[in-house]
Amino acid sequence: MPSALPLGDPAPSNGLLPATCLDGAAERTFSIYVHIPFCAVRCGYCDFNTYTAHELGSGSSQDTYAEAVSTEIAFGAQVLVDSGLPTREVSTVFFGGGTPTLLPAADLVRVLAEIRKQWDLAPDAEITTEANPDSVTRESLQELKDGGFTRVSIGMQSAVPHVLATLDRTHNPDRVGLAVDWAKEAGLQVSVDLIYGTPGESIKDWRTSVATALSYDPDHISAYALIIEEGTRLAGQIRRGEVANIDDDDHADKYLIADELFAAAGYSWYEVSNWSRDESTRCLHNLAYWRGGDWWGAGPGAHSHVGGLRWWNVKHPAAYQQRIDAGTSPAAGRETPDAEARYLEEAMLLTRIVDGMETSALQPAGRAAIAGLIADGLVVPEAAFAKKVVLTLQGRLLADAVLRRLLDF
Question: pLDDT tens for residues 255-310?
Fold first, then answer.
């Protein structure tokens, strides 16, 4: 089942933001995230805020969802104006889920049109939707492109049937290649997402998945280690001994294989779990998150961030619809992390990207740790001499350990 929302302070029904959010706002990027909480089937490893048709119950509907989330977008634009935020172009938009492409392409285009109406889109704005390979057609992808989308991220996960079965993924592996071809034909940039470390996945299986993904010649590849989340079906299967647990050494071996094969095919890492052909094919939306930009998250359970303030919407689509119908903020709570929490988060995010973290942003204990990290082969010496912390390949494998040393805990 979906994970719980964080605790926080009550959010005002009018959504207004405190004056502290205005500080430096003109220099920060602004993005929009649209959450589409619908899935045809709940995957056994997933704890995202998603719902299948039989889980929705009354009070919400896929048919009226585009209207509801468009209403929140208009509400959000007014909140920012009323809160005194400067007008900024939207640099990136990301439709995530769930499976956004379970909605008709016309609905996604309608929501994007509302974003364009309420905020100016930058001329080169990156507009992405996630998609399952069995939830798109040649026609729907062309409709998305014609409606303003620039990029599609396809959930491949694996090319091996028994691995997909363990993950409860229902698509035919051959469908991925078709979806990639259709997206390219439409003129969309294409990313494929892989998951490694599934119980029962052999090294040979993983090599097959990586080689298959590369054969599609995508612009961008993501490869994520499987994490077992409490409350998921897969966690229960592991607890009962029905499938083997995940293994950190197996994860490390598969990460090294992926990085080697991606590099040989011309892809470079720019974030620990992401590789691209060049800078023009990096996911700019995710980079906006990692670099501390502002974004408005629309939809049930969506999270937002403006000027250090974070808030999150009510989780269930029915509760969300009720707030939208009432004309009040769908936010369930909010918080402003203190200086220590912000420092920890900045270090955690910036050290994961190839651009690195300025050593001047580290506290004295963190700067003192750099020499040891160089000696242990965990950070790039040349970058450190240029006053940046950039992880080596070994450092990427041990990113959490590097962070602990930089933060002295």
Answer: 999 999 999 999 999 999 999 999 999 999 999 999 999 999 999 999 999 999 99
Q: By C-alpha distance, which of 70, 75, 76, 119 is closest to 95?
A: 70
For residue 176, give its domain range.
19-290
Tens digits of per-residue pLDDT, 50-91?
Answer: 888 767 767 778 999 999 999 999 999 999 999 999 999 999
Measuring CA to CA, which residue among 398, 286, 409, 404 is closest to residue 353?
286
Q: Single out the residue of 175, 118, 95, 110 nearest to residue 143, CA to CA.
A: 110
Q: Is position 125 within any domain? A: yes
The number of beta carbons lying within 10 Å of the beta carbon of residue 147 is 17
Percentage of the chain surpassing pLDDT 90? 88
Q: Which residues lie closer than 8 Å to 240 by C-beta, 6 or more apart?
A: none
The three-class DSSP label of residue 187 is coil
The residues with which 303 forms a beta bridge, in sequence order, are 312
d(CA 129, CA 152): 5
pTM higher than the cut 0.85: yes
Question: Using CA of residue 283, residue 37, residue 25, residue 308, what is the dihedral sign?
Answer: negative
SS3 at position 385: helix
Domain boundary among 290, 320, 350: 290
Cis peptide before 98 (omega within 30 of 0): yes
- What pLDDT sits at residue 232? 87
Q: How is residue 75 written in tokens?
A: 């509400």
User: What interhelical angle do 364-375 and 399-407 show, nearest 10?
Assistant: 140
- DSSP class per residue in 112-152: HHHHHHHSPEEEEEEEEEEE-GGG--HHHHHHHHHTT--EE
Q: How far apart are CA 188 and CA 151, in angstroms?
A: 5
- The span from the CA of 294 to the CA of 89, in Å, is 11
What SS3 state is found at 30?
A: strand
Q: How far apart are CA 77 and CA 399, in angstroms?
A: 37
Surface-to-core class of residue 299, CB atoms within 10 Å of its CB (0-12 exposed, 13-18 middle, 19+ buried) = buried
Q: How much is the average pLDDT of 197-221?
A: 97
Six-digit token pair at 386? 């240029």
Q: How far is 195 from 185, CA to CA, in rounded Å?
A: 26
CA distance 204 to 201: 8
- How many other CB atoms sit within 10 Å of the CB of residue 293? 18
* Backbone Cα Rg of the chain: 21
* Residue 323 maps to a domain: no
- 269 and 167 in one domain? yes
In a domain? residue 285: yes
